[in-house]
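ok so dumb question maybe but i'm new to this and my supervisor (M.) told me to 'just get the structure for alpha-1,2-Mannosidase' and walked off. so i did the thing. is this what she meant?? sequence i used:
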Amino acid sequence: MQPMRRRQRGFPLLCLSTALLAAAALLPGAAVAEGVTPSEARRLRDEVKDMFYHAFDGYMKYAFPLDELRPLSCQGEDSLGGYALTLIDSLDTLALLGDKEKFGAAVEWVGKNVRFDINKTVSVFETNIRILGGLLSAHLIASDYATGLRIQSYDDQLLHLAADLAQRLLPAFDTPTGIPFGSINLKYGVDENESKITSTAGGGTLTLEFGILSRLTNNTVFERVTKNSVRGIWSRRSKLNLVGAHINVFTGEWTQKDAGIGTSIDSFYEYLLKAYLLFGDEEYLYIFQEAYKAAMHYLHHDPWYVEVNMNSGATVWPLFNSLQAFWPGLQVLAGDVDPAIRTHDAFFSVWKKYGFTPEGFNLATLAVQNGQRSYPLRPELIESTYWLFKATRDYRYIDVGRDILASLQYGARCPCGYCHISDVETHKQDDHMESFFLAETVKYLWLLFDLAAGPDNIVENGPYKYIFSTEGHLLPVTREIALVDEHCSYFGAFCNGSANRGYGTSASSTKHKKPNYTQLDDIQTPSGHYSASNMFATSSYIKFVQD
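this is what came out, is it supposed to look like this??
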């Protein structure tokens, strides 16, 4: 759960307008992309690959099997559960880079050595996106001949681990609202003194991983509880169709009524759209439509976003926080590209000002927000840069990526990996490297340059389309996972249910019977046959990324 923050209340509209006009002055003029040759793009891609191995090899040498690396002191630390977090979070990045040897060895080690019957209290949110997502993504790659990365000796060990872990998380959902507790002990369940307050993102960012697990194991309970959690949050929205940041999971009362697209709420929006794209469940699309329209109406002060009171719509916090930077990428996925371009320009102007993105940038003072001066190697701006280049093929986004790469190499590289930046103005390094640096930050940067070089990876050239989880894990849209063969983009009004493509056969698909989701009374999903339809071919997204 994200910590509570002190807020500025009732920020006057006139002051906000003046501040945002001043903030707009940060934006650069019309950018002229330098462009890159294919050879230059390959050089940049290879530099990112070297970046990955500098950090990954540092972790394996100095920290493994502890959770994370301390890259300045070259030591390890257990930060989540003590089960080789960084290795599990990095599995599909190894696969993406085509490193069959290390991917195979890592999968084998995890299958033999990781167990979750441990007396550890963990974050439900972080455990889901990092560990459960990492296990499922690696399983789907390792078990499938079509990916070219099938491990001959693999026998669903990671899937069994994922199912065991999810079972241990299930008691967290036993609340009157259906919204889970924020933390749980993997051995003993929810502590009687556990806080009843959780974040909206914590309760609304579980559907992809749990939904896939239901389809792979024929155990519908995983999808049921996570969908009920989303319903529990959405049913308590305000009359403006806004949700707050923190909620009491027993009473359903909002304990922090600030609505925004960043801290504590961000991936709630993300998983609404992605759950629809992955599963074809139109209930998620409907909620996303309503939530997105409200966000654009009440939170959007073009090109920035602010936080408002969920009931009145009054601005309470004129702040750009770094987690907002995922939003342009989500807009690209939804097909709403023009505002994504403007907002990305604004967010990148903050990076250019400091060389990194601070956790908080105050739009009223045009300065780093006190107490939010750090850059913990977050991927969100890079993620949106990748999606915008994929949508537009505008080479100014390669220039953005080159700038980000240079900042990381110059300011964040340290002896055994890459360091958090504790202050974006002084560039002081901090002895910590989150696992998401290898799961997301490096992954999106590598994908960006590989796309410019002429892509050669399973995402761009493989047998499936992929949804990226909020942790950057690769989730393939296969007939084993998808429910329907047609869906339409809300923005583009573009439908076509006949675009069929062949898919490879997953080894695990022959072992696990597909659940009959039409029998679930409390999960309203469209009925229909499991087709080989390309799930993205019917979205307006396809008009931008497959020209």
